[in-house]
Amino acid sequence: MTSSDKQARTRTVVWASLGAAALLGAAAFGAVTVLPAFGHGGHADAGSGSGSGSGSAAAAQPAIAAADLASWTNQAHSIGTTSSLATAAQQHCTDALGTDVGSGTDSHLDARGEVASLVYRHGTDAYYCLSTADHLGMWDLIDDSVPAGNTVPADGILVDTAGSHGGTGSLVGYAVGFAGPDVTAVSITPVGGAATTATLEDGTWTAWWPTDAADDSDATVTITTRDGATHSVVESDAFIR
């Protein structure tokens, strides 16, 4: 991939269409954070962004507290769907969609310390959401399936969306993507950071991690296949087109 190709795929996260009342309510929590998303695939309904094509959309939410981030673990642990962490993450997604909790389906439910994340699907929409029990977190629009014109290698991955959320001392990086049928594990390692084991289900993977960088697109994604072999790609080289 050339540098010009990467530039064409750069996106700037914009406000989702929440309406004036919702925007005012969010602003009441404090300063609005605009989140960079690197290489997000085409979501025609997501608003304008830099580069070609459409932008990614993410809600401006109060940043996750540093104390909650301090509990982060690179391996996710299992939580019940009715736990406070799970329901808080659900609420971030359903608030974004304007639907009632339970009207969609959840997958990829995990927790890293005191923060849960999940993929929420409602109709043809899909969202990646993470939250603390105090409803501090973020959400981002993702593709429900591999976009047309893209093919996932049997032993490889694609990155659907990646970005960051928060501010100094409370910044998190995240990535969501697709995996081929021979892939049994995915991990992502930001430059200078720890390897994060992704949650992989039904050909889709998710991961998030505390970070000091607004752009972790040079992170290394390591893929393990059924035969036990591993190989790595740079995140920015694996973005969907």
Question: Keywords for this structure?
Answer:
241 residues, mainly beta, 4-stranded antiparallel sheet, 14 strands, 14% helix, globular, disordered N terminus
Question: Summed up, what is this model?
Answer:
This protein is mainly β and 241 residues long. It is 14% helix and 34% strand.
Q: How many helix segments?
A: 4
Distance between the termini: 11 Å
Q: Bin the strand percentage.
A: 25-35%
- Rg, rounded, reads 17 Å
Shape: globular
Helix-residue proportion: 10-25%
Largest sheet: 4 strands, antiparallel
Average pLDDT level? 77
Strand order of the largest sheet: 3-4-5-6
Structural class: mainly beta
Which parts are unreliable, with pLDDT below 50 for 5 consecutive residues or more?
1-59
Give helix and strand order, one letter per element, not per position: HEHEHHEEEEEEEEEEEE
Count of extended strands: 14
Description:
The chain is mostly beta strands and 241 residues long. Helices cover 14% and strands 34% of the residues. The chain has 4 helices and 14 strands. The chain has helices spanning 3-9, 20-27, 66-69, 84-97; strands spanning 10-12, 36-38, 105-112, 115-122, 125-132, 137-142, 157-165, 172-179, 183-189, 196-197, 199-201, 204-210, 220-225, 230-234. A hairpin with a 4-residue loop joins strand 13 (220-225) and strand 14.
